[in-house]
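Exercise 7.
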Amino acid sequence: MIATISADIVRSTSMKTEDLIALRNRLQELFHDFEDDYPGFWARIVRGDSIECVVPNYNDVLRIAILIKLYVKLRASEYDCSEMLQRYGIRFSIGLADIKYTDKEDDIIDGPAIYISGRNLDEISRLDVYSVLEIDEVPRAFSNLLDSYVAMVSNLVDSYSSKQSEVVFYKLLGFKEKEISERVGISQSSVNTRATNAQWGLLNTAIKDFEAFEIEQI
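Solution. The predicted structure, written as tokens, is:
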């Protein structure tokens, strides 16, 4: 079992074309970094504002999805765009299942996991919903429970300001507060205040708990 993420940038049409291109390029750089940190990770941007990711270790998928969401939120604050984009960043769908075939060179992702995440993204795009998770071949009650868990984590991140998003983004990458203060250009106490107001401890615990799940035991 592996994980896929299907996502889209919320209200991307509110951005100028050149700004959307710049954001896409920045996301590609982020995905390149993820390839070093998460072996086998692969992401692509399709249809202008849609994202598809393959995450071989499904335990990593929630951290990656939230990192992408935070990154788009903090970058969106630099552009003249919709308040919805600045608040939500991306809408994402996670599928946990098998993948039959991937070929980065030929730009192919094929299998149940990407079908699940893609189908569910299309469904929530028609609703006022910004995250969803589905697991193949497990009891529906368990899949629904984990879906609610992910939704609560995503909703917490939706409440962040761009400044809080920036600090939490770097903390999720493993940076220490002193390193973040130097990178962002604020005092270490300000880093701590922003993290505290963002309920960093709660988010960090939730993501670590997800990383410890053993779905094969269900």
